[in-house]
Amino acid sequence: MVILSRFATTLVLVVLFPAALLLTVVLNGCGSPEDPARDKGNAGEAQAEEPAYEIVTSWEVPRDGSGGQRALQGIVVDGSGRLYVADSGSRRILAYDADGAPLTSWDGGAGGEGRPIDVAIGPDDEVFVADFLLDGIRVFDTAGALLKSWGTAGTAPGEFSSPSGIAVDDEGFVYVTEFYGHRLQKLTADGRPVAILAGTGHDPGQLHYPAKLTRAPDGTLYVADAHNHRIQRFSTDGEFLGSWGTSGTWYGQLQDPVDVAVDGAGRMHVADSANRRVQLLGTDGSYLAEWKVPGAGEGRVQTPQGLALGPQGHLYVSDAADGRIYKLKLQGGTP
Questions:
Q1: Alpha helix locations (H) across the chain?
Q2: 28, burial (CB in 10 Å: exposed 0-12, middle 13-18, buried 19+)
Q3: SS3 call for 162
Q4: Confidence of residue 298 (pLDDT cuts 50, 70, 90)
Q5: Per-residue pLDDT tens for 98-146?
Q6: Among 8, 208, 232, 248, which one has the highest count of C-beta atoms within 10 angstroms of its own C-beta?
Q7: Is 60 exceeded by the pLDDT of residue 1?
Q8: Is the dihedral angle over the CA atoms 282, 317, 216, 202 positive or is it negative?
Q9: Peptide bond before 18: cis, by omega within 30 degrees of 0?
Q10: Nearest alpha-carbon partner for 34 in 288, 280, 251, 270
């Protein structure tokens, strides 16, 4: 395990987040099984359903013109199909239509001081941004005007130690994972603490370097519990509802998952970052399908960082190493 100080090596950790999670795997040449045709063992639904991801379109996110870094992170889709992407490298929030046409962009990093890591949409279409470096939350309208900001560094309720994921429910409550705080917090829309829903540890319901999270169609919360190599599910009151995943490179196993999206059938699309792939898992965690950037394993390192499902069921993937957004369609298989 490699954990880097965010102060001594901010550029490495945040721009390539979770580079600290990915580093040992890349250097050791580990990855997912090389031959998808090999026996998947106890792969459950995969042998009967055989779903597969297909690329609908993709587009490169341009650099900011200053020659600076580009490191795509969290991604979210609003009800109208607009995409919002956090680019930690250039400290921008970028907006696109459903097919990749640019709409607008704005400074999401507090004048260059912060590092936006994840984005979420509020009930009134506000854009909530979690800042990994400044330990805070900023809220914008869809044109990029700052509406409010809150949060400070610390370990007390309502304080943060490197926010890494954010989600907002229909009532306006905000849910934040903390990478170095090893916890999941629930807060009001203006940042007042409500509850600590999960804390540090390795047991079911506990977190160890959690990355991003999502709110599923049924309202429950799914957390990419990165260094526990699993996905965990909670109610919005913190009740532990389930956990899926074990450490490994085989089908259905995970290595440092950093994001998850859940479809209407309860299937989990997982950014399995250190295995350099996106996996589709059934409601019981069984393997259904996987997807890699074309050319991955041939001199290109895929680092899927953010996932989001659009209103038409398309899966959007932000890839940090490739600097691209991929729009995928799931073919075959029945929910």
A1: 10-15, 19-28, 46-49
A2: exposed
A3: coil
A4: low
A5: 999 999 999 987 777 889 999 999 999 999 999 999 999 999 999 999 9
A6: 232
A7: no
A8: positive
A9: yes
A10: 251
DSSP notation for 44-109: TTHHHH--EEEEEEEEEPPP-SSS----EEEEEE-TTS-EEEEETTTTEEEEE-TTS-EEEEEE-S
AA identity, residue 111: G
Rounded to whole angstroms, the Cα distance separating 190 from 150 reads 7
Q: Which two tokens stand for residue 126?
A: 């506000």
pLDDT for the residue numbered 14: 36
In the numeric block, which tokens belong to residue 318? 């932000």
Burial class of 250 by CB neighbour count within 10 A (0 to 12, 13 to 18, 19+): middle
Adjacent-strand bridge partners of 85:
75, 94
Distances (CA, A) of 294 to 57, 277, 317, 326: 13, 11, 13, 11
